[in-house]
Amino acid sequence: MADAKAKKVTYLKMPSFTRFLIGGLIAWWLSSIMNPAFVAIAVLVVLIIPVLTVDNIFSKQFERAYKQPEEIKPKAISKSEYLASLEADNAKKQEAAAAEEAKSKGKKTKK
């Protein structure tokens, strides 16, 4: 049953850029013979080449950019551990503030 629900992946092989150029030239040629609307088709076929080039070059980066972010699981911590970590953080901030104040007083006395 698991195999029946699995998604099928179909790979599509894009035509080469020379085929796109030849297709554009043929559409341009047909516009002079059959219908002038083929000029628009020729232009669209030729303008798709840069889009496909960028897609081929940067496909791995696009894949990573649109990947779903990983879920971060919260770490279980007791209330006493949490309070201890807060006190340690506050002590570090106070030490840093005292050191900064001592530096600023030391600079004022030198002037």
Strand content: under 5%
Structural class: mainly alpha
Instruction: Indicate the mean pLDDT.
Output: 82
Sum up the overall morphology in one term. Answer: elongated
Report the major sheet. Answer: none
Encode the helix/strand succession as letters: HHHHH
Distance between the termini: 82 Å
Count of the separate structural domains? 2
What would you say this structure looks like, in words?
With 111 residues, this protein is an all-alpha fold. The protein folds into two domains: 54 residues; 34 residues. It is elongated. α2 runs antiparallel to α3. 72% of the residues lie in helices and 0% in strands.
Helices and strands in order:
Layout: H1 2-5, H2 17-33, H3 38-57, H4 59-65, H5 79-110
In brief:
The chain has five helices and no strands. The protein has 111 residues and is mainly alpha-helical.
What labels describe this entry?
single chain, 111 residues, mainly alpha, 2 domains, 72% helix
